[in-house]
Amino acid sequence: MLAGTGPALALTNLTSPATTYSTPSNGSVTHIAVNPDGTLTYRMTGHNILILYPTDVPAGPSTTLYVGQVGFTVDANAVFTVTSVAGRSVDICAALS
Description:
This protein has one domain. Helices cover 5% and strands 60% of the residues. The chain is built from 1 helix and 7 strands, in the order βββββββα. It has one helix spanning 92-96, and strands at residues 2-4, 9-13, 19-23, 28-34, 40-52, 62-74, 80-91.
């Protein structure tokens, strides 16, 4: 389990005109369970940013701020599969475009 306030973040789209999306230092808790088959199960609560790639489920690229809870698994090939979402989410890519 990881817990704390976390850092303030600033994500910047460097295209013209440059756009920045900022978050204050907010609280978050991450629970990580190691499953018998070697996969990992994450449950993150509070304010968390999750970055997904084309190999993930759902396929990225995406960068999303979750305020509430997000659950996902990570398999042996480092493929992330989102399994649950509760609360508010912000599509940071859309906010930066």
